[in-house]
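Exam revision sheet. Question 4 asks you to relate a sequence to its structure. Input first:
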Amino acid sequence: MVFAAEHDVPIPYMQRTRDYYATLGYPVYRWAHFVDVPFTPLLTPLARARLALVTTAAPHQPGVGDQGPRAPYNAAAKFYTVYCESTETIPDLRISHVGYDRVHTTAEDPNTWLPLAQLQQAVKSGRLGALTPRLHGAPTNRSQRVTVETDAPELLRRCRDDGADAVVLVPN
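Answer key, structure tokens:
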């Protein structure tokens, strides 16, 4: 058995985020953490299920600065309301509006924030029954309260309207 090198450890992103907010003068950031998380088993076999995709990636907005691979953080590219895009084609979504470790990742593979092509292939191969006609975008610039009281109910409503049996959440 070979152990990983001493320096080969996960990036402590939660502590980094707390430290970042502290330098901006905010109180200690606390992630939403619930004792009990509701779970509903999938009642339909995946090969017959209709799947919805929810991502925090933002639609590309020409004119608001660099949003491509290796782009620096770009607050101008944020979005503030839930949106929908067709799952028939691959929309142009980007992640320059979120804070991620730009030293250790390049954001060059859009499949990491939008695995739509892989899901379309899963439908074609019969592993997945169908995709909902729309994918949905969840804003990342919200407080926990606004996310729980506004964005999450809207996302749930849209997924139900689309007849989703299950949802894949792709946070960025």
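Marking note for examiners. The CA atoms of residues 54 and 169 lie 5 Å apart.
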